[in-house]
Amino acid sequence: MPLQYDIAVGLRKGHKVTRIKKPTKKPFLSKHNKFVRDIVREVCGFAPYERRAMELLKVSKDKRALKFIKKRLGSHLRGKRKRDELSNVIMQMRKAAQHRDKEKDKEKDKDK
């Protein structure tokens, strides 16, 4: 077997270093963190770019909303996640509005 010497060309050229291992486990959202984030969202509301994106989503401009959010957040994957998050918020707002309307109708029926 021939000897292997460190040479300045090829696949393994350069100074030998040990690589830093990246963590493989993605941190998960705990109950407490979710609670805190919900409270902060409730108190602070949405950022101006999020409100604009929600308006685009309300008029079914999903692709334009993704393009806009992607420009603000810097990557395609972050943009998709934010768009999904805002779509879910819009759906929840619609469900809450329907629920309120049903409650009002029940109250009107009781008064009659």
In short:
The protein has 112 residues and is an all-alpha fold.
Q: How would you describe this protein?
A:
- By secondary structure, the chain is an all-alpha fold.
- The chain contains four helices and no strands.
- Helix 2 runs antiparallel to helix 3 (62-73), helix 2 (48-58) crosses helix 4 (76-111) and helix 3 packs across helix 4 (76-111).
- The longest helix has 36 residues, at 76-111.
- The relative contact order is 0.06.
- The mean pLDDT is 89.
* Ends distance: 99 Å
Alpha-carbon Rg, integer: 26 Å
Supply the helix-strand structural class.
mainly alpha
In DSSP terms, counting alpha (H) and pi (I) runs of 4 or more, how many helices? Answer: 4
Helix share, percent: 55-70%
| Beta-strand proportion | under 5%
Shape: elongated
Number of strands: 0
Q: Average pLDDT, to the nearest integer?
A: 89
Low-confidence stretches: none
Helices and strands, in order, run as HHHH
Biggest β-sheet description: none
Topology readout:
Layout: H1 31-44, H2 48-58, H3 62-73, H4 76-111
Question: Keywords for this structure?
Answer:
112 residues; single chain; 4 helices; elongated; mainly alpha
